[in-house]
Amino acid sequence: STESSLERALQDHVRSIRLERSELDIDPKKLGELTEWVSLNTFQVTKGGETKEKDFVDAFLPTMVFVMMLYFLIYFHGYAMTRGIIQEKTSRVMEVLLGSVSPNELMAGKILGIGLVGLTQVSIYIVTGWLARTAALFWLNLGDMERLADVIAPGKLLAFGVFYVFGYFIFVSIFAIVGAACNSDQEAQQLQLPIVGCLMLPMMTTIFFVSNPDSIGAVVLSLVPIFTPMVMFMRISVISPPAWQIVLSILLMSGTIYLFFRAAAKVFRIGTLMYGKRPTVGEIWRWAWS
After folding, report:
1. Is the pLDDT assigned to residue 147 strictly greater than 70?
2. CA angle in degrees (0–180, nearest 5) for 49-52-56
3. Are 77 and 115 in contact (CB under 8 A)?
4. Of 8, 58, 79, 84, whose CB count within 10 A is highest?
5. Which regions of 17-95 does DSSP assign to beta strands (E)?
6. Cα(51)–Cα(37) distance, integer angstroms
7. Distance between CA atoms of 170 and 254, rounded to whole angstroms?
8. Would you tell me how many other CB atoms lie within 10 Å of the CB of residue 78?
9. pTM here?
């Protein structure tokens, strides 16, 4: 940077003045060579033993963009579930719908419907990214090609799609519980604050996970299902985690989705026909796990 260049030039000038005043018989140029600044270049080593230069910014910025996309996609589609349920409750449409289908069928239809919309959106992003990568490779130089190929690598795009699907199904069931338990958007906004916090925490700490993808904290949180979609994706974006960790995280997320869906179905069955006072968190907990 300009500041670093000025600092180095000033340092060299001050060193020369001090050397002249010290009356030591040392050539300033020779001293400059001996005290020359050592620059540090970082390289990523692949499993095949190949090395390629990669700095922190190259790893952090693309990962942050992908994680923010995960956050907004999961949150907006999850909140669409909450708002849809609340609107149908307040307009009494829910009572008409439940006269034709069971609560479980209605909830499953909503989850799959919104999920397919989100999956279509993610598929468009993935295909667009792949096409942009393929097209740009014809116009960029070798260094830029390698950087772009790493940012929009097929494996990273696939991981983005997979973890979006798991993240959506984990959180949409919680958003369905919020919608079934609330009677207005204001009530829902208060009740969903912990959910938003769980989504935002990994995003706000991206710099830690990118800097320390193999740390104990990163490994543990990547296996906690509610944090897995973002944290494991960050780790995959930077390094290649052991296969057993990826498989275990998928199994844990699958089990969590099953449990959350069962809980959401119970709350949905009771809460969709309740009006007036919003149930307490304790009451919702009893509905979900009774």
Report:
1. no
2. 120
3. yes
4. 79
5. 43-45, 51-53
6. 24
7. 9
8. 27
9. 0.74
